[in-house]
Write a structure and sequence with these properties.
about 140 residues, 6 helices, about 80% helix
């Protein structure tokens, strides 16, 4: 089961749900940008421990320029996403913020097709539309 992408995807969803709840409680007493920094420091410490404990360090020179560029862009996008997410949580209900945040699923589908050449069938697009509709129903009504 631990080798299945579905297992890890569901685990990711569960942790993402806890993230919203914990963040909403945590951001109540602090500026949202500082809350994001604190969260990021905790993530760095945990990941450094995991990489060290599992012996996954590799020479930084072995990483290609393209990999560095796209990981840096991904990191910048993650940081911007987290800043916006924490600001939204500071201002709104977690049960309304999280569904709007999950519209990223819809955008990933569109971007995957446009930029990565991925193919989605009619049933897949129906799912994308349903996710968008469901997120908007949860958040706005």
């Amino acid at each position: 089961m631990a080798q299945s992408w579905i297992f890890w995807a569901f685990l990711s969803a569960a942790f993402a749900a806890l993230t919203a709840i914990f963040a909403k409680i945590g951001v109540a007493g602090v500026n949202s940008d500082l809350a994001t920094l604190i969260r990021t420091v905790v993530i760095i410490a945990i990941l450094a421990g995991i990489v060290t404990a599992t012996g996954q360090w590799q020479p930084l020179s072995s990483i290609s320029g393209k990999t560095w560029l796209f990981l840096a862009l991904s990191g910048a996008a993650t940081g911007a996403s987290w800043l916006a997410y924490f600001r939204a949580l500071k201002l709104g209900d977690a049960a309304r913020v999280a569904p709007i945040d999950k519209l990223s699923i819809v955008l990933v589908a569109v971007f995957g097709v446009v930029f990565l050449g991925e193919k989605l069938g009619l049933v897949n697009w129906l799912g994308v539309v349903m996710i968008a509709g469901g997120a908007l129903l949860l958040a706005l009504f």
